[in-house]
Please model this.
Amino acid sequence: MNSDDIKKIALQYLRECKLESDCIEYKKSHLQRDSILKTMCAFSNNLMNRNLSMILVGVEEHKEPESKGTPIRPILGYDESQIETVENSLKSLIGFIKPKVNYTMTHAEIDGRFFVIFAFSNNNIGPYEVLEKAEKDKTINLKRGRYVRIERDSRLASIKEEFELLKKFSDYHFTEEYSNVATIDDLDVDYIREYLNASTDRENTKNLSKQDMAEHMGLVDVETGMVKNFALLMFSRSPEKFIPYSYVELIHKSASGESVMSSKEFRGPIWKQLRNAMDEINNAYLKSLTLRVKDDLKSETIYNYPYSAVEELLTNAIVHKNYENPRSVQVYVYDDSIVITNYNKPIPPITIQDLNTKDSFPNRMYENPSIREMFRSLDLIESFGSGVGKAKRAMVENGSDGIHYQEYDENIDITSVMIPISTKYLQYSYRAMDLATKDQNLDFEGQKTTSKDQNLDFEGQKTTSKDQNLDFEGQKTTSKDQNLDFGGERIKINSVDAIGIINRSTYSNSIRKTLTAIFDRFFNEEFSRADIVSYLNASKSASTNYISYLQNLNVVEQVKGKGKGKYRFR
Model:
């Protein structure tokens, strides 16, 4: 960035009276040498990965609590004749820092006065530290060490921050390092072939050996045969043997959150973990209601949790996990929320607050760049930095409340996102249950139920939730159908997320649209091949194919006792 651009930014800060932050500081005088030197070192270390940081010298800040940290206008500043002296004084501070600081110095005018701009750009050299001679200099008297900038405070780095600085300037990524305990023999050739055949960077693997594929993909060191950690995570049958806790744990907790009702681990390659965990979550915990106005062909499907939101956030947790941390990615399923927890924070400049307030992060830095790229090649990531925004949009489209990232103390390395259950889904499900209770004349005085098997006793008659064929005054009904009508509006409580399964199928887009149309028309009634012919104006063979597609997806079942060829959605 050139001097003119830096001047424009600095002048804009002053015109807007911008608050001091992790990339801007105001100094009344160049004689505040200890404070300026400390901030010079902190801005050079750039722990927050800002593109530009600057010290504006000759600008005093407000001290009052309501405006503290904002510049006082008009500025105190300097006469133009003083600028050379000020700049030389500031340049002399450079010798108290090693390695040599990369900076830009210029000056500008505002309010009829001049100020000096000391600017620092992001660079790959470092970490920077104040030398011991700064302690001995009477004009400085600043303790030696590495300084970092946290919000408005320039201070000595903690042990943890020292480690982060070393990682930053060495460009260290655990998953890009070679494993000390594994070789190419620990990679599964079938997984490598499956990945290459499924990825957007598709390769013809038929005649390629494992060694050829591994070298082509940068998984191994050609000379030593050592493999990189990301290769183990992607292509080992048991990556946790080499990288502990590299799996996803799904935990179903009680309403109070105090007791575990069930727990399941998903192991193997991490991209398989994602798919297997999502299959389990979808089948066990994702539910839907289909709403339809009487005599209207249009319908609306509401999910307790939108599939795509859960998938995007779980993908983020897996891709951004610090695989050196001995904790697994954890998915907690409660009665009213799903919480996905990853035991590391986002890499600066992204913060937890940013994740709550922003939708896209095009310039974010990644813990595991190769894993990110491989997930993108498998279409598990659409575009870099877009996953959180996609999850938020899915929640809005479903009529759900927004996702929420929990903020913790800065010393606690946790990224935990809560996906609340849809309030609209709850409202309609409660209305449906109330109506079912009313219409079915249930006697709750004699009802006995347990959350496990739901054995209901109605005046001495027992039934279980498996059958749920209830007889009320000679009229049979099944909870499977649960087509409820109130105020002209019908609700179907789906035991299978038919729409979700159809949309995620591998059928072509046109077939998926046709299957969705069939669901919208017949979701609450029995239908036959002839009904589809009539509704779609399709041929008999085409209608037969559509039924076969639905059967293959296991979203329809044949109706028994009414002859052959009658079906209904499950």
In short: The radius of gyration is 31 Å.
